[in-house]
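Standup notes
- HV: blocked on the assembly model, inputs below
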Amino acid sequence: MPAAPAAPWSAGSLIQASYFVTAVLFITGLKRMSSPVSARSGIVWAGAGMLVATLVTFAYPGMSNYPLISAAIVLGAALAWWSGKRVAMTNMPQMIALYNGMGGGAAASIAAVELYRGGSDGAVGTTLAVAGGLIGAVSFSGSAIAFGKLQGLIKRSIRFRGQQIVSLLLLAAALVHGVLAIVHPGDSSVYVTGLLIFALLLGLAMTLPIGGADMPVVISLYNALTGLAVGFEGFALHNAAMIIAGTVVGSAGTLLTQLMARAMNRSLGNVLFSGFGEGSAAGGGEVSGSLKPIEASDVGVMLAFAQKVIVVPGYGMAVAQAQHKIWELCQLLIDRGVTVRFAIHPVAGRMPGHMNVLLAEAGVPYDLIGDLEEINGEFETADVALVIGANDVVNPVARTDKSSPIYGMPILNADRAQNVIVIKRGQGAGFSGIENALFYLDNTRMLYGDAQKVGSALIAAVKALS
Amino acid sequence: MTGIVALYIFMLAAFTGYEVISRVPVILHTPLMSGSNFVHGIVLVGAMVALGNAHTPLEKTIGFIGVLLAAGNAVGGYVVTERMLEMFKSSKAPRSASEER
């Protein structure tokens, strides 16, 4: 039987009532976050829920170690506050991965404490604690790798033959230890340790082979997994707030992951197990033609005298922090009577909506921004498609070349514009490692350089014309 | 509370999560992922209970790490989401001025 004196459902009706309020605040907050008008108040609602739940938990019956609890909260909160306030907008994706991994680690820690103590609440409770611990540990190490990759700490995808078999073996080993821990509740320390170690290794083995281009999907998946782990630990602890919040995030995150994978026309299994992301460039080998460079001053003239310009931002714009310069340039063009639109691919950048956030930061109004379906028909009427550090999302190979790893992915039809200008740092292939046929088209010109510097040069060029 | 009631909670919460997010415009995907990342920071509550009931040094150490990580999840998730959504404010003014939709 559990040593936990935390008498679950009956005791402390104040606590239960507070958790109920928290659950309502969370769901209301998430609902408000799903509309641009109320989004900002949504996080405040959810934050209030978190505050209520945290404070009331100090009154949980039968608890001790209050100094330790307070110290851990202050330390963790201070570090996260400091890092969250300091990080640049462009680095948000990896911070989400990092904080998400911490949540997974916390769920695994709860499982470890409960299980080392001898299992919680019979076989069902122990099973759920084991399941939550396994998922949480995978999410912890997997998110850490995702963070490392996006932060540039891990440069290459590590891949070897039989990788999936290794992952399967690790999963099997973790499951076996989990079952043994459930079957021997009194004496399970060794099995619990084995379960957690194999689960952590599984997270590493699953994430290391996945290329950076797929990281949005992976982070979203781990977000859902952490939610699920939290929900399972909630069952084990009989904590309704954790069950509801964790499950809501688990299902919402799963849906979001599916939406993202669908935007890339791939199944989730394909993302996780195909090893796509880089290196498999052989498929697109028949690209013909040459890269034709162009000067910023010429591009300035081309833009200034265009009827319609469609800007296609990508990760390169985020890296260069060029969104402000680009919007300044576009405002100049709008003042000259040019129609300017922004086209955003669902998986442009490293997170869904990544580009929307950056453009919003720069002050670009919503109504100039169109997503894939809205704007794809407009490229044919555009004089210039200005591609800024985007690559795979405008690669026409996805339409034509069945052997390409990105075949079938919906792309922005930038190649159908009269002229295509590609702003790009260097001549290398994109994050996916696939050659981009767009760059070799007759109507494409390459403008090499850091997107921010190029933006300044273009602004100067357009200003010189007036 | 019996297991079957817990199962009902699980099912209804799962549908709620699905419904809440199913009508989200792409523009809010990143903030919403960040927001849901904050929401599972509720794991802090469980970590506090786990540490509060820890007895051996090993349990206390793991429990301490758990609370530390959970607090990081909750606070970091909030700060990042709040900063992201803050930017939507600045872009609202020109939008409503130019064209109300």
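- HV (later): unblocked. DSSP finds 17 helices and six strands in chain A. Chain A touches chain B through 123 residues (CB under 8 Å).
- Next: hand off to the docking folks.
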